[in-house]
Specification:
- By secondary structure, the protein is of the alpha/beta class.
- It has helices at about 10-20, 40-50, 60-70, 85-100, 120-130, 150-155, 165-175, 180-190, 195-200, 210-220, 225-235, 240-260, 270-280, 285-300, 305-320, and strands at about 30, 75-80, 110, 135-140, 155-160.
- The protein folds into three domains: about 1-160, Rossmann fold, CATH 3.40.50; about 165-195, no CATH class; about 205-320, Zinc Finger, Delta Prime, domain 3 (Up-down Bundle).
- The protein contains 15 helices and five strands.
Length: about 325
């Protein structure tokens, strides 16, 4: 069954199952949660179950097989074109949803990064939600519901997806063939995101993170040339830059945990390094560092110039 592949989101799955069983599905949903926690997988399972001949997401009927293969004609996927979702994309979607379904009893769409709707696209989307075409189902995915236009939020049923437990992420990685020791560390660093954990396992991020952390921690305004050289080198690793920043945030959070007397250390294999950093930094300085790295991470997410974002980050780190 489609919902059986969803890990760790029993409450959200229960809500969706009940809506299908009762025949009272909402016309629009807003799924909020961190990247890689299972929002899109859940949305696909939900729509597969709606389209299924038996409303179970059986996996065997023609509709389910098309959903699994990713080519069902009545499902439309929409994501940002560059930085934003644009009005032309919404107009094209409106046209598609206004047509009769090809095979299923209704049409459906999944909109990724709904917070990236630009103003004109958001207003056009609002009109679609106010006057939904036929019995189409729209699922919007976002990492931050508060960043979505409030009038859009008010017309959607909001489901919040919590970060997955480390054990759930670890078990998923092991099932996919990741070595147990690597899975434990990747799960802890990923902070509840299977997608991020898989990304970490597929890169050299784990194996060289001690050297990375040492470089980040050593940046200094007394060595501006070295600071910019480090920025240039990491910005050249475009596919790994975000994961490198995530690793440093995970490390700083461990330092913060230790400073406040906690024991839930993600990077336990780096404990000596974490203890040394905790001995030389104050909680306020750690918070400033975390905020600086998160600001750079967000800038990259919004397609900022990587080199400039890292230059600014290392200057801020050197100042705190």
């Amino acid at each position: 069954m489609a919902f059986e592949r969803i890990l760790g989101h029993e409450r959200c799955v229960s809500v969706l199952r009940r809506s299908i069983d009762s025949g009272k599905t909402a016309h629009a949903y807003l799924f909020e949660g961190i990247e890689g926690c299972g929002r899109r997988t859940t949305a696909l399972a939900f729509i597969q179950t709606l389209f299924c001949a038996s409303n179970t997401g059986c996996g065997d009927c023609p509709s389910c097989r098309k959903m699994i293969s990713g080519n069902h004609p009545d499902l439309h996927l929409l994501e940002p074109d560059g930085t934003f979702i644009k009005i032309d994309q919404i107009r094209a979607l409106q046209k598609e949803l206004s047509l009769r379904p090809y095979e299923a009893s209704r049409k459906a769409c999944i909109i990724k990064d709904a917070e990236q709707l630009n103003i004109s696209a958001a207003n056009a989307m609002l009109k679609t939600l106010e006057e939904p075409p036929g019995n189409a189902v729209i699922v919007l995915l976002t990492t931050d519901a508060s960043a979505v236009l409030s009038t859009i939020r008010s017309r959607c049923q909001l489901l919040r997806f919590a970060p997955l437990s480390n054990d759930t992420v670890r078990d998923c990685l092991v099932e996919r063939g990741v070595a147990p020791d690597t899975a434990v560390t990747a799960a802890a660093v990923a902070r509840g995101s299977i997608g991020k954990a898989l990304e970490i396992c597929g890169q050299e991020t784990l194996s060289d993170r001690q050297d990375r952390i040492a470089e980040f921690s050593a940046v200094s305004l007394s060595d501006i040339a070295g600071l910019f050289t480090l920025s240039e080198r990491i910005s050249a690793e475009k596919n790994d830059t975000a994961a490198i920043l995530d690793t440093f945030v995970s490390y700083l959070r461990d330092v913060q945990t230790l400073l406040y007397g906690g024991s839930d250390i993600a990077n336990r294999d780096l404990l000596p390094l974490i203890e040394r950093e905790a001995a030389r930094l104050t909680p306020d300085r750690v918070m400033k560092r975390i905020a600086s790295v998160m600001a750079a991470r967000q800038a990259l997410q919004y397609n900022a110039n990587t080199r400039l974002a890292l230059d600014l980050l290392f200057i801020r780190l050197a100042q705190c």
